[in-house]
Amino acid sequence: MSTRPTKDQLAAAYGTTIPDVLAPGLDVLFCGINPGLYSGALKQHFARPGNRFWPALHGGGFTPRRFDPSEQAQLLDLKLGVTNVVARATARADELTGDELREGGKLLAAKVLEHRPRWLAVVGITAYRTAFGFPKASVGRQEQRIGGTHVWVLPNPSGLNAHWTPAGLAAEFAALRAAVVTR
């Protein structure tokens, strides 16, 4: 199980990065906006206890049980991975600039072209719109691809995103899972 970082560890995490959970030929590469300080301190994706990524991943049928962020490497066994649009950890995603998101989109596209996952699932509609220049994009399957990789946008699972309930998030993850299984 993940341990709770100290106040000093959180402060020291500002601007740090987390290694990707990535391998060639994944079924889905999930892509967060950027790591929060909690994640940066623990070097684990979506590590803050209030983040709903791990419950939604399980609720959507991607994992046989709810994984703890400390088990993120086990995603590779399920042909799943995790990365971020912007690598640096911040206290809040709104600290990122549009330029950072657009540069992150270019770097992410290069990563996708290199590793060729079947699907890229960007977790955060606003970040996706900015990073890839599609201001009218909505949650769900996107028309554009990156190379041969299909793109899907999921809601941001942060506990700060009150627009989406846990059940609603799980349903969106399940819709992606259904598309992954049928293709």
Automatic annotation (TrEMBL):
Uracil-DNA glycosylase-like domain span? 19-177
What is the superkingdom listed in this entry's lineage? Bacteria
List, alphabetically, the Pfam families matched: UDG
Mind listing the UniProt keywords for this protein, alphabetically?
DNA damage, DNA repair, Glycosidase, Hydrolase
Looking up SMART domains in the UniProt record yields: UDG, UreE_C
Q: Name one GO molecular function term.
A: hydrolase activity, acting on glycosyl bonds
What InterPro entries does the database record attribute to this sequence? MUG/TDG, Uracil-DNA_glycosylase-like, Uracil-DNA_glycosylase-like_sf
Q: Which CDD domains match?
A: UDG-F2_TDG_MUG
- This entry's Enzyme Commission designation comes to 3.2.2.28
Name this polypeptide is given: G/U mismatch-specific DNA glycosylase
Q: Could you tell me which species this protein originates from? A: Amycolatopsis heterodermiae
